[in-house]
Amino acid sequence: MYEYADKIASLLNRKIVREFSGIKSLRNFDEINVLEQVSAAYERIYRAALEYFLRLAERAYSDASSASAGIDSGFVRRILSEPDPVSMYVFDSEFDRKRLRLAEAIRASEGSNAEITRSMRLLSSMLALYAVTVADAATVKSYRDSGVERVRWISEEDKKTCRECRSRNGKVYPIDKIPPKPHPNCRCWIEAIENQPSD
Ligand SMILES: [Zn+2]
To answer: Where are the domains of the chain?
Structure first.
């Protein structure tokens, strides 16, 4: 289900690693320059995220159904500016907080390589989590646009699956009442239930 989301997450991770290797070489610069350079790097990462997430949403949408409405350009922006249903974080604010925090750490001369690497990992895992969020949202939109009324929750059955996810496996929900995922990094997905022909 999430192969393409994982691919997008790994492309974004590569972008982040490249940008952060630039950031690691910044520490001897003056304060304003550090903030500007970190901000510029984060801005480039953000633009890449928008572009890749849009590609991901389009793919998830067309994989889910033959609905034709498609994904508009505001779709990803909306997801990133609204509270995430699982974590309740707003991507945009969290992204900005991470940017300022890193710039602050570097300026305060605590910007050890370990600190920068930690910031890099946190940013990368946030984008990986959002790849799943974007794929899920595009899938639900596709189902809705094609007239699906009910969906079935599918849990990944392995040792790591938590009790809550396991208990939802196979449950049917109206498309407008799908519960939020119980925890971040949940790899459950939903499948459409064909509408019964009324006779
Ligand atoms: Zn789950």
So the answer is: 3-147, 148-199
